[in-house]
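User: Please fill in residues for this 366-position structure.
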């Protein structure tokens, strides 16, 4: 027998806004590729519809299972994720110089996308069982830092710098949710400032070039700076009202690379214009505010930390992808939630929304 309170607490606004952005994604993936001669690209919007269907199934599963079970099996989920990442390094599928994917029957799965939610669940479990009062000191953060660093390292050497950065930021999200000793906070800030110049020497040559072209894209306008320049041209040419669906010249004439994945926002901005961008950002803002509201009203500490981590992760993906397309962040291949083409990212984001709906539904059910 289904408890009526679960249905009463279901956030239909969150569900329908997520679905609306996904439908926009299908439309603009079609628009981005409709003029290309390759049948594979012209049919990507159909594949995206299938991925949305899979995502809805995953969302339903995330809603149906009491989120408190994730707390019980958090460390097991983390261990399975570690094994999966090691498997990727040994036997993963190589594409574009990176080994990030594995085959599961007819599907190709990017394990690093799943890893970020594994970390969110694990850190939520750790901090749930942590201090009920009092400040966190450096020694209290060693275990969560180790959990984060291990996943981040395995993802970074694939290489997948974008997701590795997201893993690091998920850890930072949780640092903002706990009460930290001020001296510990200053120590972490100092260590971060010292590590910043050292990390430069750990980057590969193409990653260094991306950082340099962020500062000055014109230094290599036909090479590393090409993506950023064409993206900004597309966004700027949209004007206030946009050029209209299927009418984006940067997209239609194939000046804009990776236009159905990393730079789908550029396609959207060129064709929908400033007014369309404002509407899209408003929809994203509603999702994030609803996530924070769910965090505030969660029934327990695990639900609070889980909702906060999920909301923060979605926020960083939105901010970094849009920042990348307008030239304020380096290009790292981070997709825009629900709008970019991609099965693994779409399914994991639907899982994230399912978790928020789950926590919201069970806030009055014990």
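Assistant: Residues filled in for all 366 positions:
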């Amino acid at each position: 027998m289904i408890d009526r309170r679960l249905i009463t607490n279901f956030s239909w606004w969150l569900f329908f806004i997520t679905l609306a952005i996904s439908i926009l994604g299908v439309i603009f993936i079609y628009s981005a590729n409709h003029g290309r001669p390759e049948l594979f690209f012209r049919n990507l919007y159909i594949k995206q519809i299938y991925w949305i269907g899979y995502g809805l199934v995953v969302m339903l599963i995330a809603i149906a299972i009491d989120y408190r079970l994730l707390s019980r099996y958090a460390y097991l989920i983390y261990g399975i994720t570690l094994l999966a990442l090691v498997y990727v390094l040994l036997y993963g599928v190589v594409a574009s110089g990176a080994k990030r994917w594995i085959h599961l029957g007819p599907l190709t799965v990017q394990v690093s996308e799943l890893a970020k939610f594994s970390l969110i669940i694990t850190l939520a479990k750790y901090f749930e069982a942590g201090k009920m009062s009092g400040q966190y000191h450096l020694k209290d953060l060693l275990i969560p830092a180790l959990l984060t660093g291990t996943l981040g390292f395995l993802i970074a050497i694939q290489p997948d710098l974008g997701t590795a950065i997201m893993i690091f930021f998920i850890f930072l999200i949780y640092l903002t949710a706990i009460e930290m000793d001020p001296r510990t906070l200053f120590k972490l800030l100092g260590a971060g400032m010292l590590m910043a110049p050292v990390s430069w020497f750990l980057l590969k040559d193409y990653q260094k070039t991306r950082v340099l072209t962020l500062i000055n894209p014109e230094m290599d306008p036909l090479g590393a700076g090409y993506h950023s320049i064409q993206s900004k041209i597309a966004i700027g040419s949209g004007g206030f009202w946009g050029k209209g669906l299927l009418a984006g010249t940067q997209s239609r004439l194939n000046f804009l690379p990776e236009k159905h994945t990393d730079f789908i926002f550029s396609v959207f901005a060129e064709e929908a214009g400033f007014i369309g961008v404002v509407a899209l950002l408003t929809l994203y803002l509603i999702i994030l505010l609803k996530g924070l509201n769910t965090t505030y009203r969660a029934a327990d500490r695990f639900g609070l930390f889980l909702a906060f981590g999920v909301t923060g992760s979605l926020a960083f993906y939105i901010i970094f992808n849009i920042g990348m397309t307008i030239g304020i962040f380096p290009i790292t291949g981070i997709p825009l939630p629900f709008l970019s083409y991609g099965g693994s990212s779409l399914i994991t984001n639907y899982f994230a929304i399912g978790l928020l709906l789950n926590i919201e539904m069970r806030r009055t059910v014990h």
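For context: The chain has a mean pLDDT of 84.
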